[in-house]
Each structure stands twice: as C-alpha cells, then as structure tokens.
Design a protein that fits this description.
Chain lengths: 233, 257
C-alpha cells in the first residue's frame, strides 16, 4: 500500500508538471466556478452584513441568530435545495440549469453568502463606530459612508472573502449534486477526487489533492500577511 | 474684538429630550443656542450626556424629541437635520482619521460636493498650508502624533467651511504645545465667524476663548456655580500660562486687524 502510494504520488506529480489536459481542465473548472461564485456573493453578503450591523430594525437580533446558525450549513443540504429548485419540476426547472456550471455557481454562491454574512457582520460590528460617524459628519451620504467603513476594514473583509473562497473551492456536496460530475464540463477538483478514489485510481486524486493543499497553503500565507497588515494599523 | 454678532443664533434647539434605554432621563434641555463667532463651553461630570448632546446637535444621533430653528424655519429634529447637517461638524474626543494619506483625509468631504479635481486639490493645498501640515500631506494619517492628528481632523472639517464646529474634549491627551495650538485654532475659527461648542474638563486652555459657559447637570443646562473663564474676564492664568495666553491673544489680534 505504501509503495502504491509512493508510485501514485510520483505519477501524480508527473501528471501535473506535464500539463495533462484532463487534469488541468478539472482544475480550470474548479477555479472558474468558484471565482464567479465568490465575486457575485461577497459584495452582496458584505452589504447585508453592513445593514445588519449598522441599521436598527425590528427582528434584527433573531435575524443575526438565524444567519449565524446557517453559517456552517452542510453543503449537501444546499445541494438538495438548489437541486429541488432547478430540477425539471422545480421552481426554476424551465431554465434547464441542472448539471451545468451555472448550477454549481449558484450552489456555491449560496454557501459563500451564508458563510460571509455572519463573518463580515462580526468584522463590521466590532469596528470603530467613529469611522461611520466621521464620514457622516463630513457630509458623506449613507452609501458613501458605508463604502468608507468597508474601506477602513478592507483587510478583515478580504480575509473573510478568502476564507469563503477556500470553503467553496474545496466543497464536494453541492458540486456533485447539482453539477453531476460530467467530464470536462462540471467535473471539478473535489468531485474528481471522489470519483478517482472510488475507482481505486489514486494518482489523479493525489495530484488534485496536492493542488488543493498548495492552494490552501498559499491562501493561508496570504491571510497571515493580511492579518499582519491589519494589526500594524 | 471680532465683531461678535449676537442678534440671531445660527442654530437653536428647543425642548431637547433624551431618555436612555434604561429609562433614565438623560437630557431635558429647554433651549440651546449657537451663535456666529462665539464659543460656548459645556462642562459637567463624566457620563452626564455632553457627548450625547453634541451628537444630537451634529445630527448624528437622534433625540427623543427636539425642535430646531435653522435658517428661519422651525422643524422637528428628524426633518431639520437634513438641512443643517452639512453646516455642523462634530469632532470626537479621540479624533478618527481614515486609514489613508493626510491629503485624502482632508479632501474627504470636498470629494462629495461635485467640485472638479483641481478645485479640490487647490482647496486642500491651501488648507494644509494654513494649518502648517503641508510637509505631512503624503503621510498615512494613522502614523501621526496625537497633536498632528487633531490638526488634520480640524483641517479636514474646516476645509468644508462649516458654520458650527462641535469639539468634544479637544484638549484631552494633548501636550502643552498642542493645547496652545488648539486654543489658537479655536480663536481663529471665532474670528472667521464659526460658532464653536467645546466640552472640556480643563478650563485653563479656554481662558480668553470661551464666551459663554454652561454646565450640564441632571439633564439641564445652567450657568455654573463656580468661576467662568469668559472671554476678556476669565480665570487668572497660572504664571507659566500667562505668557502663552498673552501670545495667543496678540496673535489672534494681529490676524483680525
């Protein structure tokens, strides 16, 4: 077994470095889907988090509690909900989106959104109120004051977005359910690893696992740098 | 000295009421007027509501009730604040500077006014020179000393030519020299017809600057029982201060003439 693993790992490296088209196609799908999802969900989630942190309205506290408990919603549950909405008899069945990359993007938008809202709310609620008050007293309209507060917290908010990206690019539940793991179309890194492993072909699985590990490492280094920057100020 | 106009207040609030969530009645003020070119000193123990009052005056935090006389109309606070907010600027006890350059702090308010880039740049440059901050223009505002930060915050407000400036404990945490500078700036504001409201625990730096002194006690404003450092009358400054205050007065006199 150990020998197998060693051989498989070497083969995996060779696959990666030789630019194996199938392998790199899978990596491309992962990044394409997750980058689209994070770019769409983060701005919306941060604005909602800001409203929850700064506006006063009834049922604000129950809403915060609900959103906090939804933060770590199982991805298969999101997959189930999106599947039901997109399936032929679902609410949006006419759009024929099930088993497309768009369906995967939608699923990951939901996961990222639910992850970012409570995290960004934490960042914004703990921030210095004087930023908002100063912007307002200097004549900024509410929307501009909001952007100013977010700019002041850019390092913290970017860290939240990066953590959300790490969560969606590694998730398998939603992708496999609404994407369908279709070769060179909706097969991304996690679904490919699941498939290769079940077939007993570890090399490609290990190669893809390495990509995710390197990505996680890079994101963590970047996060550490951001936190350092945030603390200096 | 500065041709003080006492005829009509710039801003007048009546029936200011504010109750805390705990049920404690914080403010119960019948009348508060701010006049052109005059400095009103507000004193009172900590937690008595001075900052809350300034934030109501600035339009930042809502009172439970207040009527506002501004530019000839009397409106309830929520309706009035949209009209007068632009003319009133509040400065925190610990001023807040945005995490960007001194220039970008000072031009913050101007950029929302629809001026051209060159107009904004010119006004900022003039303001920085006026405040003696030109050499710090490109520095990140967070890296400055306490006194410098306060000067940047004041300049950032003044470049908007407000009619009223609300200063919350502007002398706290400053060294002697910065206090002198701040006092000098308040004098200058008065001479430029800005109405100034200052809260302070320290009366000495306001000697010869404050025109009126009110004390906030049990939610109400009243003239204080103890001595008032009023403009012209004032406390006798301590020996080490006498020279400094005299210097400030002559300097302002020179500017005005």
């Amino acid at each position: 077994m150990e020998e197998n693993l060693g051989h498989a790992s070497l083969y995996a490296l060779r696959l990666l470095l030789s630019g194996d088209p199938d392998l790199w196609n899978i990596i491309g799908v992962s990044f394409s889907v997750s980058v689209r999802a994070i770019l769409i969900s983060t701005p919306l989630a941060v604005v909602l988090a800001f409203l929850i942190a700064y506006a006063r309205f009834p049922a604000r506290h129950p809403l915060i509690a609900v959103l906090q408990s939804l933060q770590s919603i199982p991805t298969v549950v999101v997959g189930l909900l999106v599947y039901m909405l997109l399936s032929r008899r679902g609410l949006f069945g006419d759009l024929h989106l099930l088993f497309t990359q768009t369906a995967m993007v939608i699923g990951q938008i939901v996961i990222a959104f639910l992850f970012v809202v409570p995290m960004a709310h934490g960042v914004l609620a703990a921030a210095d109120r004087r930023a908002w008050e100063t912007a307002r007293t200097l004549g900024a309209a509410p929307w501009r004051a909001m952007l100013t507060v977010m700019t002041e917290l850019r390092f913290g908010l970017l860290a939240v977005a990066i953590a959300a990206f790490a969560r969606i690019i590694t998730e398998v539940g939603t992708s496999i359910m609404v994407g369908g793991n279709i070769e060179s179309f909706t097969r991304n890194i996690p679904t490919a690893i699941a498939l290769e492993t079940s077939k007993g072909e570890f090399a490609q699985g290990i190669a893809l696992g390495l990509v995710l590990l390197v990505l996680a490492l890079l994101l963590n280094v970047f996060l550490g740098m951001l936190q350092g920057k945030g603390e200096m100020r | 000295m500065n041709g003080v106009d006492v005829s009509l207040p710039i801003l007048r609030l009546t029936d200011i009421r504010k109750t805390l969530p705990t049920g404690r009645r914080l403010l119960e003020i019948d009348e508060l007027s701010i006049h052109t070119g005059r400095c009103l000193l507000l004193t009172g123990p900590n937690g008595i509501g001075k900052t809350t009052l300034l934030k109501i005056l600035s339009g930042l935090d809502p009172p439970d009730h207040a009527l506002v006389d501004y530019r000839g109309t009397r409106l309830p606070w929520p309706a009035a604040r949209r009209h007068y907010r632009r003319d009133v600027i509040y400065l925190h006890q610990q001023v807040y500077l945005f995490d960007r350059s001194v220039t970008d702090n000072v031009n913050y308010g101007l950029r929302g006014l629809g001026l051209s880039r060159t107009q904004v740049a010119e006004r900022v440059q003039r303001a920085l020179e006026w405040a003696g901050l030109s050499h710090l223009a490109g520095r990140n505002a967070r890296e400055l000393s306490g006194g410098e930060k306060q000067r940047v915050a004041l300049t950032r407000a003044l470049v908007l030519t407000p009619r009223v400036l609300l200063l919350d404990e502007p002398f706290s945490g400053l060294d002697e020299e910065s206090r002198g500078r701040t006092g000098f700036l308040i004098q200058r504001l008065k001479s430029e017809q800005v109405g100034v409201v200052v809260t302070s625990h320290e009366l000495l730096p306001l000697t010869g600057i404050a025109d009126e002194h009110l004390e906030l006690r049990a939610g109400r404003l009243a003239p204080p029982a103890r001595t008032v450092p009023r403009a012209g009358v004032g406390l006798r400054p301590r020996d080490e201060w006498r020279g400094h205050v005299a210097y400030l007065n002559t300097k302002v006199g020179d500017e005005a003439s």
